[in-house]
Design a protein that fits this description.
The protein is α/β, with parallel strands linked by helices. The protein folds into two domains: 2-129, Response regulator (Rossmann fold), CATH 3.40.50; 143-344, Rossmann fold (3-Layer(aba) Sandwich). Helices cover 36% and strands 18% of the residues. It is built from eleven helices and 14 strands. The strands form three sheets. It has a seven-stranded parallel sheet, with helices on both faces. Helix 3 links the parallel strand 3 and strand 4. Helix 2 runs parallel beside helix 3 and helix 3 runs parallel beside helix 4 (86-98). It is elongated, with a radius of gyration of 20 Å.
Length: 349
């Protein structure tokens, strides 16, 4: 039985979420809270397996409650936000930076055409997140001394890197923030990213990453020319890859691994177009999207990196890649940015 705390200031929304979760026989709602203060107090004396957390609440909002809970009594926290509200979306990403592990849009009412789909998404996420036994806050570079990773000798291909491709899912936004914060803003290659994220949150993530990392962050556009030092993130509902011309290519091809955009699609196209002139990075996330294609990148001569288990919120995707011997380097999230910097700017010795 998965024990859940529901944190929501609206009584109607709170009762609806409780009803939704209680409809699954494996989930038991053990408590509710109407604001962040009540949530923090509840967690002090009880031990839920998962918390669903509203953002905008009186007395203490969801961001502050998440920060305190993750610093005192860590519990997997899922943000439920009204994605159309820019202020809530911004705070949702701040909460993820503070340690929340997923963000979903609040469920629609009964009778809504997407009710069943969104209800199942929330229930499934609660179940999967309950299996995350230890939830860590991502270390900030300024708070922790970073030791440069041991890297191989420079060879010719490391002098010809043209692109960095990154794939991630659950726990990805703060992981991406950590990596981009470790790169110089004048890095000589573009960065392409596929991030699995709930519909409606992408624009908020793009804005948040831009504000917190200083990089120009774009939602990818078809046939867009790739500029060095710019970051391109796959748009909602479209695969993103690269064409033979080296420009971005968006596609409505069938989902891969049930996903569109898919990391596999990006990595496969990068492997085919850039071959040994690419770096592939697979980060925290559920499932196996991108694992086989990271191996393809490696086989085509690219440099490949997987996030280690200790710093991953969920080690599914990078773990599967490691099993396939797809990763040349396995390292914690706070070392990956420096490794990329060294490889692209030829500073590896």
């Amino acid at each position: 039985m998965i024990k859940v705390l529901v944190v929501e200031d609206s009584l109607v929304a709170r009762e609806f979420i409780v009803h939704l979760l209680s409809s699954d026989p494996e989930i038991r709602v053990i408590g509710t809270a109407g604001n962040g203060e009540e949530a923090v107090e509840f967690v002090r004396t009880n031990k839920p397996d998962v918390i669903t957390m509203d953002i905008h609440m009186p007395k203490m909002d969801g961001f502050e409650a998440t920060r305190i809970i993750m610093e005192t009594n860590p519990v997997p926290i899922i943000i439920l936000s009204a994605s159309w509200n820019p202020e809530e979306v911004e705070k949702a990403f701040l909460a993820m930076q503070a340690g929340a592990i997923a963000a979903l849009e609040k469920p629609p009412g009964l009778g809504h055409p997407e009710y069943e789909k969104r209800m199942q998404e929330i229930v499934t996420t609660v179940k999967l997140m309950s299996e995350v036994k230890v939830v860590k806050r991502f270390p900030r570079l300024r708070e922790k001394k970073i030791f440069p990773p041991v890297a191989p000798k420079v060879d010719k291909r490391r002098e010809e890197i043209k692109v960095i491709a990154i794939g991630t899912s659950t726990g990805g936004p703060p992981a991406l923030q950590t990596i981009l914060s470790g790169l110089s803003k004048d890095i000589s290659v573009p960065v392409l990213i596929v991030q699995h994220i709930a519909k409606g949150f992408l624009s908020g993530m793009v804005e948040w990453l831009g504000q917190t990392t200083g990089f120009p962050i774009h939602t990818g556009k078809h046939d867009e020319y790739l500029l060095p030092g710019n970051v391109y993130i796959a748009p909602d509902g479209l695969h993103m890859g690269v064409a033979n011309s080296g420009r971005l290519a968006l596609s409505v091809d069938d989902p891969i691994n049930g996903l569109r955009p898919s990391v596999s699609y990006l990595f496969r196209s990068v492997a085919n177009v850039f071959r040994e002139k690419a770096i592939g990075v697979l980060l925290t996330g559920m499932g196996s999207d991108g694992a086989e294609e990271l191996k393809l990148m490696k086989d085509r001569g690219a440099i490949t990196i997987a996030q280690d288990k200790e710093s991953s919120v969920v080690h599914g995707m990078p773990g599967e890649a490691i099993k396939l011997d797809a990763a040349m380097h396995v390292m914690p999230i706070d070392m990956i940015g420096k490794m990329l910097e060294s490889l692209v700017n030829k500073k590896v010795h």
